[in-house]
């Protein structure tokens, strides 16, 4: 079978389309024929350097994918063969206190498909059967599969951050940075679906228009209005937001605190803007604000996000869809930051001529 195999760390040249042996499933695993996979920032970060402990080369990336089960490692799992499934990338033992508490990423046996074990940038991938959610989508419906493949990481992370850790409820005002990122776009849709007033932050007039079109109530263009905290105060009549979903970290965290009302919350779900920061501590204790860690997302967060997507509660914003052979171009688009929503690559069984759904918005 063919797979995009990463053999070193660096530019796009370290990932090559290679003929490799088909995976053989363990007794608790099924083999999935990949129909579509969505790119995540970690795919590119890990191509540059091994940012996650336990990741090594040769490696097949791809955390987010949908596919069709073609075989299994045990006759007891044969019922899954033929099903179209979405794969949860978090693999854990399923038995320890953290797994039983629905916090699988704290498990000592925790692995991530597409990070610390091989993922979906391939024709076939072997995954634990318990990681598969059967979905009601035809194996030839490339447009729907492209959307579906983009649900797990962005959907479950936004679900956990906003609703799990953040306890966002209808009527509250939430600030979400990076409405054009796959994560931010999913967060905006999930917050809207739950009745929140959404203020989102973007960079550039074009992304502002896209964010408004996606339903956000207020959009602040940080290139035109660098003091976004003051803008939030103006929008909220001086009160501040109930919740800021900070999935970027770094300097943003201190600003996020100041953008919340007294007693407000900040959920920290990521550190793409920096691992360290400095806080003005009175901003935290005097108004009684809280900073909450995102923590492990659970199978329930994943299941909720998938179910909400399936029943149309929220939509996934797709930037573009690429053929399997053009992975390097798709990754270049992700690295350019000139995109809005999720970037998806179709599995090799879709020929390039099926790409008429692709809108490579310039
Ligand atoms: Zn465990």
Give the topology, please.
Elements: E1 2-6, E2 15-19, E3 29-38, H1 41-48, E4 59-60, E5 64-72, E6 84-87, E7 90-91, H2 97-100, E8 111-112, E9 124-128, E10 132-134, H3 142-149, H4 152-165, E11 173-177, H5 182-193, E12 197-202, H6 205-213, E13 218-221, H7 228-235, E14 241-246, H8 252-258, E15 260-268, H9 282-285, E16 290-293, H10 299-310, E17 318-322, H11 327-336, E18 342-346
Parallel strand pairs: 11-12, 11-14, 12-13, 14-15, 15-16, 17-18
Antiparallel strand pairs: 1-2, 1-4, 3-5, 3-9, 3-18, 5-6, 6-10, 7-8
Helix pairs in contact: 4-5, 4-10
The structure holds zinc ion.
Zinc ion (ZN) binds at residues 92-93, 95-96, 98-99, 107, 109.
GO molecular function, one term: NADPH binding
Domain Enoyl reductase (ER): 10-345
Keywords: NADP, Oxidoreductase
Structure summary:
This is Zinc-binding dehydrogenase. With 362 residues, the protein is α/β, with parallel strands linked by helices.
Q: Which properties best describe this structure?
A:
25% strand; 27% helix; 362 residues; six-stranded parallel β-sheet; 2 domains; disordered C terminus; alpha/beta; Rossmann fold; Quinone Oxidoreductase, Chain A, domain 1; seven-stranded mixed β-sheet; binds zinc ion
Can you describe this structure?
With 362 residues, this protein is α/β, with parallel strands linked by helices. The chain folds into two domains: 2-150 and 317-357, Quinone Oxidoreductase, Chain A, domain 1 (Alpha-Beta Complex), CATH 3.90.180.10; 155-293, Rossmann fold, CATH 3.40.50.720. It has helices at residues 41-48, 97-100, 142-149, 152-165, 182-193, 205-213, 228-235, 252-258, 282-285, 299-310, 327-336, and strands spanning 2-6, 15-19, 29-38, 59-60, 64-72, 84-87, 90-91, 111-112, 124-128, 132-134, 173-177, 197-202, 218-221, 241-246, 260-268, 290-293, 318-322, 342-346. Strands 3, 5, 6, 9, 10, 17 and 18 form a seven-stranded mixed β-sheet that branches. Strands 13-12-11-14-15-16 form a six-stranded parallel β-sheet, with helices on both faces. Strands 2-1-4 form a three-stranded antiparallel β-sheet, with no helix packed on it. Helix 11 links the parallel strand 17 (318-322) and strand 18 (342-346). Helix 4 packs across helix 5. The longest helix is centred in the middle third of the chain and has 14 residues, at 152-165. It binds zinc ion.
């Amino acid at each position: 079978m063919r797979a995009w195999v990463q053999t070193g760390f660096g530019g796009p040249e370290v990932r090559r389309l290679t003929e490799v042996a088909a995976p053989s499933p363990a007794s608790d695993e099924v083999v999935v024929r990949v129909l579509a996979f969505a790119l995540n920032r970690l795919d590119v970060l890990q191509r540059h350097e091994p940012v996650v402990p336990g990741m090594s080369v040769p490696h097949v990336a791809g955390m987010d994918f949908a596919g069709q089960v073609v075989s299994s490692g045990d006759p007891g799992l044969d019922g899954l063969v033929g099903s179209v499934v979405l794969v949860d990338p978090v693999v854990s033992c399923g038995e320890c206190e953290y797994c039983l508490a629905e916090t699988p990423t704290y498990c000592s046996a925790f692995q991530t498909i597409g990070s610390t074990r091989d993922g979906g940038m391939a024709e076939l991938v072997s995954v634990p059967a318990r990681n598969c959610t059967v979905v009601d989508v035809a194996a030839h419906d490339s447009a729907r599969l492209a959307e579906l493949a983009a649900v797990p990481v962005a959907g479950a992370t936004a679900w956990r951050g906003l609703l799990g850790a953040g306890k966002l409820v209808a009527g509250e005002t939430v600030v979400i940075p990076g409405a054009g990122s796959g994560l931010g776009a999913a967060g905006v849709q999930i917050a809207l679906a739950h009745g929140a007033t959404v203020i989102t932050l973007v960079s550039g007039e074009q992304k502002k228009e896209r964010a408004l079109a996606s339903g956000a109530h207020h959009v602040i263009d940080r290139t035109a209005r660098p003091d976004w905290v003051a803008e939030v105060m103006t929008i909220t009549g001086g009160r501040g937001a109930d919740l800021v979903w900070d999935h970027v970290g770094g300097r943003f965290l201190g600003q996020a605190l100041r953008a919340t009302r007294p007693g407000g919350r900040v959920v920290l779900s990521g550190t793409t803007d920096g691992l360290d920061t400095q806080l003005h501590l009175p901003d935290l204790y005097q108004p009684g604000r809280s900073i909450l860690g995102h923590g492990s997302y659970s199978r329930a967060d994943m299941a909720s996000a998938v179910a909400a997507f399936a029943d149309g509660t929220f939509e996934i914003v797709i930037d573009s869809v690429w053929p399997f052979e053009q992975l390097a171009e798709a990754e270049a688009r992700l690295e350019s930051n000139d995109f809005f929503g999720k970037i998806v690559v179709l599995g090799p069984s879709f020929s390039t001529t099926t790409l008429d759904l692709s809108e490579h918005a310039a």
